[in-house]
Each structure stands twice: as C-alpha cells, then as structure tokens.
Amino acid sequence: MPRIPASGTLVEVETDEGIIGYSMTHLPVSDRALARYIEDVLGRIVVGKDPFMVEAIWRDVYNTCNRILFGIAQATSAVECAIWDVIGKALKTPVYRLLGGFKEKVRAYASFPFALKPKAASQMAETARKRGFNAVKVRIGEGLRRDEEIIRTVREEHPDIEIMVDANSGYETVREAVRLSEICEAYNVRWLEEPLPSDNLSALAELRARSGVDIAGGENDFSIFRFKEILDAGAYDIVQPDATRCGGILQCRKIAAMAEAYGVEATPHIFGFGLVMAANLQVIAASYNSPWMEYPLFPEEFYMLEEPIRVEDGYAVVPKEPGLGVRLNFETIERFLEKS
Predict the structure, then answer these.
(1) Of 11, 35, 31, 29, nearest in space to 21 by CA
(2) Sign of torsion, CA 316 322 323 329?
(3) In contact, 115 and 139? CB cutoff 8 Å
(4) Cα–Cα distance for residue pair 55/145, rounded to 1 Å
(5) DSSP string over 299-327
(6) What is the C-alpha separation between 104 and 335, in angstroms, rounded?
(7) Sign of torsion over alpha carbons 175, 178, 180, 183
(8) DSSP label at residue 31
(9) H or E stretch including 54?
(10) What are the residue ranges spanned by the domains of the chain?
C-alpha cells in the first residue's frame, strides 16, 4: 500500500441545463495537482461539448493528453465517470442499464483496508461477516512466513468463508511468488492478487502458468490498449480494471468485454469512496464476466453517501437511482474537508 494518507478528488461536471454529475478518484499523489490539472487542462477540452458524445470527448482528451502529453489517467477517468452520471440523470436511468444491463445484485467481498497481524485479520473477517459478507480479501505482502500465518489464521478460524489475498506487488521474484501461490492453494484461497510488480508481464505470465490458484491484477493499468497487452501476455486469470483509473466507465466496460473474449474474468478493482464504488458497480452490473464486487470495509461515513450500497446475504444490491445510482452526503464531505 502507498505510504501516504488516504485521500481523494471529487469531480463535478455541470451542464447548461443544470444537471450535475459527480465522480471521485482516490489516492492521487496530490489532490491539489490533480484538481488543478482537471480545471486548467481537461476543462478546456470538455467544456462546451455534448455530454452524450462521451466517446468523442474521451478520444479528444486521450489524443490531446494521455497519448501525446503523458496526461493523468485518474483525471481522464474521473471526468468521464462524472459525464456518465450526467447522462444517466438526464435520462432518469442508472448507467448500468445504458451499458446493456446484466444483473441487479452481485457477490461482494469485504476488502480489508490495510495489512493486519494474524489475529486482527481474523477479527476483521468476523466484522465483515456481521456486516453481511461471506467473502473477504486479506492484505498480505509481509514476507512468506508472516503471510502464511495470516492466511492460516483466517482460514482456520473461518473455515466456510471465501478468502482472497492481495500482496500489493510485495514480492520481486517468480520463485517467491510461486511459493506464495502454493501457500494460497493449500488454504483454498480464491485468488492471489498482484504478487509481483504489475509492469512485469512476463514474470506474471510465468507465475500464472505455474500456479494452482488464480492470479489477479491490473488495478493501476490504463486503457484498452494496455489491457490487450496484459491479455495477450496471459498475465492474469482475473483482470481488475478500475473505472476511476483505467480511463472511465466506457473503457472499463470495453476491457471487460475484451477479457470475456479471452475467457478471462473481469472483476473491477474498487478501493476508495462511495462514488468510486458506484462507478465500478455500474460496469460490473452490465458485464457477464464480472461475478464479484470489491467492497472496501470502512466505517460508513467514509463512503460519503446518503445511503451506502446495501449488502444482503453476501450480495451487493445495485442501486436503481439515475446516473451512478447514489447520492453524496455533502455534510460528511464538508467535515472531511475541514480536517484536510
């Protein structure tokens, strides 16, 4: 995990008809720099455009910024997500239905916010169960001995819960990662996420070929072009694009469709505030090969929504309200702003 405080940038797009779309991105290196870039650069490209021409807007931003000038992926993504919120609100329809619509609930796993000692990890798994989850993702990457202790403790104390683990690129060599995958297989782990640096596709492909447990990753990768490289390399059993990082909702949906053609699961990465969850959930609900929703296990106020996305019997219920389906709690947002 990055060694900086959790933070995020709220993006607001308003039309000449008074419709306001919102989105958020999380953990930028600098929120102020990201906000300034959106206002000074992307604002000049987006303002005055028809929001329903979202593909044309995205191409203009991508060709001007990301392709030539090393633009900021999170900025491109967040603006595009806010535009989809506008489109859904204008049509009084949730975005997932505009993308095709496939399901209205999805299995959810509680994602631990940071690495914990074995006993604390087991206690957090119990907290997740009390909140309606029957699957958890545990943070590891603390070394093979400690990682095995964490996984073993959670498995032994919760034998019927589904376990995923995320090493956050905590290992450098294929040999170590293979050993970690063997540990995961021994304790019936559903998938092993980012055991190696995500730029090292050849090492990931070798690990995947030797692993008895599914390998997942891709949360920090941008655009269909990068994900085609990932899929061609055979790096992952499960790709994890994030709509607030990979280029936006439409790029994320395209990536999921491309993965489907490769016979690969697409389970979007979600780690952040309620709007980050909502944007990715729209893609999940429209995608055949997206059977899981990552649900960050935070205190409810951290989602900054009037009503958090509901979890019932291990399933997240897709909100039916227009746009991204959720309403911001501006009172909570103001409190966080006062602390920042």
Answers:
(1) 11
(2) negative
(3) yes
(4) 48
(5) -GGGG-BSSPPPEETTEEEPP-SSBTS--
(6) 32
(7) negative
(8) H
(9) helix 54-61
(10) 8-94, 96-331
Quickly tell me which residue has 């405080």 as its tokens.
5
Beta-bridged to residue 106, according to DSSP, are 316
In the prediction, which pLDDT does 338 show? Answer: 54
| DSSP bridge partners of 109 | 294
* Residue entry with tokens 């640096």: 197
Catalytic residues: 269
Q: For residues 266 and 49, give the distance between their C-alpha atoms in angstroms, rounded to a whole number.
A: 31
Give the strand pairing for 191-193 and 162-166: parallel
Q: Which pLDDT value is given to residue 115?
A: 86
CATH superfamily of 8-94: Enolase-like, N-terminal domain (3.30.390.10)
Q: Establish whether domains 8-94 and 96-331 are of one fold.
A: no
What amino acid is encoded at 66 in this protein?
A: N
**pLDDT value at position 5?**
60
Position 4 scores a pLDDT of: 47
CA pair distance 274, 308, nearest whole angstrom: 7
Rg from Cα positions in the chain: 19
Residues of the chain with pLDDT under 50: 2-4
Tokens of 31: 């929120």
Count of residues for the chain? 340
CA distance 321 to 327: 9
Domain 96-331: which CATH number of 3.20.20.120, 1.10.3720.10, 3.40.50.970, 3.90.980.10: 3.20.20.120
